[in-house]
User: What shape does this take?
Amino acid sequence: SVTQKLTSGKPIVNLKFTGRISSFTLSADADGSNAEISNLVINGHPGATVIVVHENSTQQVFLYEGSFSGDIKGTINFVKTGTKESREPADFLAKVSTDDYIIHGSALFQIMPDTATVIYTHYMVVGGYPRTFDGPITIDESQVTGTFVSYVHLVGTYRGTVNCKRTY
Assistant: This one.
């Protein structure tokens, strides 16, 4: 629930959202850009991380939620803008269940007719050593599927599968 009043065309400053199991604070410029979430608390999920995506109304946004499993396992979510499967990148956020690594990156696609296969991923790690998370992963309008290879500096290489369903 929110008890603060908003004014259209004005910046949002420290707007507090409180629910049964979570709370967070939202700030953004008047046009919705530079949105930022802080003070995120989700009961039972210490260290939860969020990505704010500002939707451009000229492109459809696809959200996918799921998991990866194999040598390592965890939760992975994708956000993809645009309907041209082999053109626009998809941002992802992954959390390995056995450590504190959060992987955030953009999946780039091989541009070929009738395919949207990830051939390379750019990554950023919050905490710890660098870790890659590479495809080939296929994204379509209903799911994200495929195999991955993840490399952790000074630890090793892990392999497995990704399976996500479109949720929006």
User: Anything to note?
Assistant: Confidence is low (pLDDT under 50) at residues 122-126. The first strand starts at residue 12 and ends at 18. DSSP finds no helices and twelve strands in the chain. The CA atoms of residues 95 and 153 lie 17 Å apart.
